[in-house]
Design brief:
There is one protein chain. By secondary structure, the protein is an alpha+beta fold. The chain folds into two domains: about 80 residues, no CATH class; about 70 residues, Multidrug-efflux Transporter Regulator, Chain: A, Domain 2. The protein is built from six helices and seven strands; from the N terminus they run βαββαββααββαα. The protein has a three-stranded antiparallel beta sheet. A two-stranded antiparallel ribbon has the order 1-4. A two-stranded antiparallel ribbon has the order 2-3. A hairpin with a 2-residue loop joins β6 and β7.
Length: about 160
């Protein structure tokens, strides 16, 4: 990757060499994670003029795998820190919803928040908890609809129409 493919916003635009290297790294790291699912950290060996070892938490390694997987596909990747307290726009972006919809959720007290003057602030942990519950509810509804569809007898429809 050349120096021109980076910016101050931590954006990585992979070139052809980077996509190949990233694909290989993803395979290696995923295989390691599958072989050691209980590990809480891993040691990465850095080789160069002076070899070094870095201890990395597995949560960070999993994030690295996600970044590398996107780079392997040739997609640009942006890494941005997320503060513990979010604005409504940041929370909406994180949930992939519009800000007005998020405000509606806040008014319904579905996500806790606090006011700073006339602004609302949300804790990252509360937003992530809501996201987890919301995704679980969506999966349950989808599973129920799928089960209903599998138990549906098309002959019942024909009988009702006659």
């Amino acid at each position: 990757m050349n120096a021109n493919s980076r910016s101050a916003h931590h954006l990585i635009v992979p070139d052809e060499v980077t996509t190949v290297q990233a694909a290989h790294a993803v395979q290696t790291l995923k295989h390691f994670r599958e072989q050691h699912p209980e590990a809480s950290s891993v040691s990465l060996v850095l080789s160069g003029k002076e070899d070094a070892t870095a201890e990395v938490p597995t949560d960070v390694l999993d994030l690295l795998i996600l970044v590398l997987a996107q780079a392997a596909r040739g997609n640009a990747v942006a890494v941005s820190p997320v503060k513990r307290e979010l604005t409504t726009q940041q929370a909406a972006d994180l949930l992939n919803v519009s800000r007005p919809y998020l405000v509606k959720l806040l008014d319904q007290r579905r996500i806790p928040f606090r006011r700073v003057g006339n602004r609302r602030r949300l804790l990252l942990s509360d937003v992530m908890a809501f996201k987890h519950v919301d995704e679980s509810e969506r999966r349950a509804i989808a599973a129920e609809l799928t089960a209903d569809g599998q138990h549906h007898d098309p002959e019942d429809d024909a009988t009702e129409q006659t």
